[in-house]
Design a protein that fits this description.
The complex is a heterodimer of chains A (about 550) and B (about 60).
Chain A lengths: L23 E8 L3 H12 L4 E5 L12 E3 H10 L2 H7 L1 E2 L2 E6 L2 E7 L11 E3 L2 H13 L4 E5 L2 E8 L2 E8 L2 E12 L6 H5 L5 E4 L4 E8 L6 E6 L8 E6 L4 E7 L6 H4 L2 H12 L5 E9 L2 E4 L4 E2 L2 E3 L1 H4 E2 L7 H20 L7 H27 L4 H16 L1 H4 L39 E4 L2 E4 L8 E5 L6 H8 L5 E5 L3 E2 L4 H6 L6 E4 L5 E5 L4 H11 L9
Helix pairs in contact in A: 1-4, 1-9, 2-3, 9-10
Chain B lengths: L12 H12 L4 H19 L2 H13 L3
Classes of the chains: A alpha+beta (about 550), B mainly alpha (about 60).
Chain lengths: ~550, ~60
């Protein structure tokens, strides 16, 4: 069926580990080379940490699955070095239409804020997203990516893990300090350890049909509530790369997934929607159900769960892959520093606390969208329908129409890693992610986010500091770089507007580009204390 | 601290009550339900303030018990 893309086949290669007399030890082993497993390996490599990735298959995602990648995810990919092919291949869109029954109720234009390197979001098939990450991982000496390596057995202890891995050359043993698990929503490792992901199962089925259109369609997101061609259900039409259109039909709980997946049953649905004269080819189809759930603790001994294995959401709002990658980025810098002995071992626990919060926010948003799309009782349907009718004429009601709130990075304002007492007014808040801004350095055009990440940065306006003070700040740690904002030219004034750095003011920015502390007057004592706190040393005092 | 006004705030209470019941007079129960839904949404947006709205929801729900 699939014509626009053929899955690459990655070769199985025998590793010297397989001939070793005893289990070879690696600090980090990652299970699963999907978006989160690959992101973990790339992020760890950026922090100087080697890893081994095991995947039981030998290709990227079969079929498209995730299609919408948010700005924050692209910023993370840009830090790894693979955002450019994604943005080039992906579809950038900002316009959409909402329909109710037989008519259009309104259209919107998201008009993204200017002065960011990357777009608000792109639509791109998951297989491309993964392929570009694999291409980068293959060139990274710190990543050992092993296809067709299947985890058979795991012995998880408090101080590490023993693994039995199956290949076509037989079974071999490995051991590791930390095992990162990204083996998907139905994680076998999770269940083999007797752990659960808990939450809500939604009694509904959806049909995804990816089709190639012969005719031109606008690059817009169209969402129908209760359309005439598909009564009492919702339908989404959205463009991906290669002229492939994602059509998502809500089917209801009683639908038979095997029947609905057949081309002879899909065609009439699409013809009813687009008209009989619109030519299209069916590229890929799948019927899915979904759950909103998470584990109570993503960490078990030294096994750390990531992505859908740790937390799962409904697809409305594109929070699965985006939320997953953002969790990975939260973990990678912490794990690398714990392994190097530069951080408190308890820093890993803050991955759980910060991302429990992130997952709860994603689940809340996607559950609300699901409840709007599929009203749970008669009165909910009355409110939904009347909201849509009002939305045709009254702008206020459009803010209530919820077909998915697009993924935004969550903030960690209550994180114990933050130092919150010595800030300054204005600019960005502690616990929030840094915003991009166009700058230039030594006459070369650049972006602020390109200066940040992978190590701690003290972004300081050195105007009221003397050379000695700046030198002392730089000497605090090898993992901290002082960037004097006076060396950043600000051609559009957006950096000044977004960061509000006056003389002596400074931000302490984590390797994941989140703000750990703000200082009214940067000095060695305060910055050192905030850095220690961000590395988890204060967590040791609390039981 | 309560922000919802629960003392009389109408400029003409009798006129509002008459208009409300008049609007429903000819409607079937399902249509009344829809009209009420639209009315709630319009008024809720006019109020806007989350705390006021939640207090009103709370009082309305309590009287049901």
């Amino acid at each position: 069926m699939q014509k626009t893309y053929s899955n690459p086949i990655y070769p199985y290669r025998k590793s010297p580990d397989q001939d070793a007399a005893s289990a070879v030890h690696h600090p980090v082993i990652i299970i699963g080379a999907g978006p989160c497993g690959l992101a973990a390996a790339l992020d760890l490599a950026k922090q100087g940490q080697a890893s081994v990735v095991l995947d039981d298959n030998n290709t990227v995602s079969v079929g498209s699955r995730a299609i919408c990648f948010s700005k924050r995810t692209l910023e993370i990919m840009d830090r790894y070095g693979c955002a450019t092919p994604m943005v080039d291949k992906g579809v950038t869109w900002q316009k959409g239409k909402v329909f109710f029954k037989e008519e259009q109720v309104y259209e919107f234009d998201l008009l993204p804020e200017s002065g960011h390197k990357l777009p608000a979001f792109i639509n791109l098939q998951q297989y491309y997203f993964e392929e570009y990450m694999v291409n980068l991982a293959d060139q990274e000496p710190l990543i050992d990516l092993r296809w067709k390596n299947k985890l058979l057995e795991l012995d998880s202890q408090g101080d590490g893990n023993q693994l039995q891995v199956e290949t076509e050359d037989g079974v071999y043993s490995l051991s590791c300090d930390y095992l990162l698990v990204a083996d998907g929503a139905n994680s076998k490792i999770r269940s083999s350890l007797g752990l659960e992901s808990k939450g809500q199962v939604f009694q509904d089925r959806f049909l995804i049909a990816d089709v190639v259109m012969k005719a031109d369609f606008p690059t817009e997101r169209w969402f129908w509530f209760d359309p005439e061609f598909h009564r009492n259900q919702s339908v989404l039409l959205h463009k991906q790369a290669d002229n492939v259109w994602r059509i998502d039909f809500q089917l209801g709980w009683d639908a038979d997934p095997e029947e609905e997946k057949k081309e002879e049953n899909i065609r009439p649905r699409i013809e009813a929607m687009l008209g009989k004269d619109v030519e299209f080819e069916l590229e890929w189809a799948s019927v899915y159900t979904f759950q909103c759930r998470k584990m109570d603790d993503y960490i078990h001994n030294r096994v750390v769960f990531m992505g859908d294995a740790a937390h799962q959401v409904s697809p409305f709002g594109a929070r699965g892959a985006n939320g997953g990658v953002q969790s990975v980025e939260n973990l990678a810098w912490k794990l690398a520093r714990v392994l190097k002995g530069e951080a408190s071992p308890r820093l890993i626990e803050s991955y759980n606390t910060e991302r429990q919060h992130g997952a709860a926010e994603n689940i809340l948003n996607s559950t609300r969208a699901t409840d709007f799309i599929t009203p749970k009782n008669d009165i909910s349907r009355v409110f939904r329908d009347e909201t849509l009718r009002l939305a045709k004429h009254y702008p206020f009601a459009r803010s209530l129409v919820n077909s998915g709130r697009l993924s935004m990075p969550c903030d960690y304002r209550d994180s114990e890693l933050n130092t919150t007492d010595k800030g300054f007014e204005g600019g960005l808040h502690v616990g929030f992610v840094c915003q991009d801004a166009p700058i230039s350095v030594a006459g070369q055009g650049s972006w602020l986010l390109e200066q940040l990440g992978n190590r701690f940065v003290l972004l300081v306006n050195g105007d009221t500091l003397d050379e000695k003070e700046l030198t002392e700040l730089q000497a605090i740690s090898d993992d901290l770089e002082v960037i004097d904002s006076r060396n950043l030219e600000d051609p559009e004034g957006l950096f000044a507007q977004r960061y509000a750095l006056l003389g002596g003011h400074a931000y302490l920015i984590r390797p994941d580009q989140y703000i750990a502390a703000k200082f009214k007057q940067a000095n060695v004592n305060d910055v050192s204390a905030a850095l220690k706190r961000a590395l988890g040393f204060n967590l040791e005092k609390t039981p | 601290m309560s922000k919802l006004i629960t003392d009389n705030h109408f400029s003409d209470a009798d006129a509002f009550y008459a208009a409300l019941t008049d609007a429903h007079r000819e409607l079937a129960p399902e249509d009344s339900e829809r009209l009420n839904a639209r009315l709630i949404l319009l008024l809720a947006n006019h109020i806007g303030d989350k705390q006021v709205l939640l207090e009103a929801l709370d009082i309305a729900a309590q009287l049901e018990q």
